[in-house]
Amino acid sequence: MRKILGRRSRAGTRRGLPPPAVAISLFPLLLLVIDVFNTPSVRLGPLMVAAPTFAAAFCAPAGVLGVSAVTLPCVVLASWSNQQLATENFLVQMITTALIIAAATAAASVRVHRERQLARARWVAEVTQRVLLHPLPRRVGSFDVASLYESADEEAAVGGDLYAIARHGNCSRLLLGDVQGKGLASLDMVSSVLNGFRQSVRHGSTLPTVVRELAAGFQEDVRELSAAAEESPCGPGAYADESFVTAVLCELPDEGPMRLVNLGHPEPLLLHDGKVTALEPTVPVPPLGLEDLNGVEIVVDTTDFPMGATLVLYTDGVTEARNPAGDFYPLADRLRNWTDLPPEALLAAVRADLRRHVDGPLTDDVAMVALQRTPAPEPARAPAAGRPASTRSDSLDGEPAGSPVSRTRPSPVSRIRRRPPSAATPQAPSGAASPAGP
Hints:
Blueprint: H1 2-14, H2 20-37, H3 50-58, H4 61-81, H5 88-132, E1 139-140, E2 143-150, E3 161-168, E4 171-179, H6 187-202, H7 207-229, E5 245-253, E6 258-263, E7 269-272, E8 275-278, E9 301-303, E10 310-314, H8 316-319, H9 331-335, H10 343-358, E11 366-373, E12 395-396, E13 399-400
Helix pairs in contact: 2-3, 2-4, 3-4, 3-5, 4-5, 6-7
């Protein structure tokens, strides 16, 4: 943390910006110049004690002492200029200045200590987020993946929203949910749902079985947390019996349609061919923790996931975000402008647009996951005998295989079928110019 602050300080010096202590030290010097050339009836020496006070708000204790080292001589010179050195008022002024300097130094020390505590707390929150919400891979199966997380608690990096991806065989399982409550108070329930989901998927459970196992584990964890809360300062109401989690579980095979279960969560959006389709559940299923309201079996919906399409999952913190006029954020309408963007660029556009819409701090946690089905990258061919790999002339999308473009995944829209070079086809040298990629 000190290294980071040091780098920022040096960066500011390189940009020509003086440190706060230097800028504040100019204040008593300016008052001294004015006092010397001003009439004796107006004395500005007493105002110089404001400099250490300003330094306490912006500088470290060493900076406060540096400003004080400039302020004291200025006070003495101002009193000499006004012929006040032999008066009792000068002694009182010096004692007052010394007390203010001592108080400013102590205040700066307390402020720096608390800032370091806050920095450590934020670091712990970031570590907690990485432990609970494992970073999603950029590629899983036949899908490109991107995620977005914004906590409504400014002092925390993780809140009540959650997401996870787990792989089993040739199928990927995705969970995105929203725990009752927000901020750090919901971390216990977030941990319960995520751990239960990962364990259930590793066992190869079917999608309805995953839902039942999550519900049973969540209810058991809530009962244990409620019992433990009775002995904590939070009181027994910290974890109520009606605690619940809304969620969407998706089963994404490498090929074929996807299957999903919606547990009282906002419907996912499928982007394809410039259209945005809301995937509403056939039969609503209550959230986790409210299974007693469910009078039917868990219904799994099946829908096509075409090549090049993008699936967007989100929490209600996105669609319920209001602008100063009270209007909700129109996610589906905005996504129609970005249907051709890859997942990372898509979520970046939503994040910037959401910030502009809210024009202030978020009132709820925000989580989004975007997945785009794209062709799997073809495995690299072995270099021909007697020729190094860097000079191979096999090409992908019109680029030489030795160039960086040939190692990237082809675009789902303009992918050109790769054909092995024939004897009749002249091969381009590795340094030859190549047509622009997709």
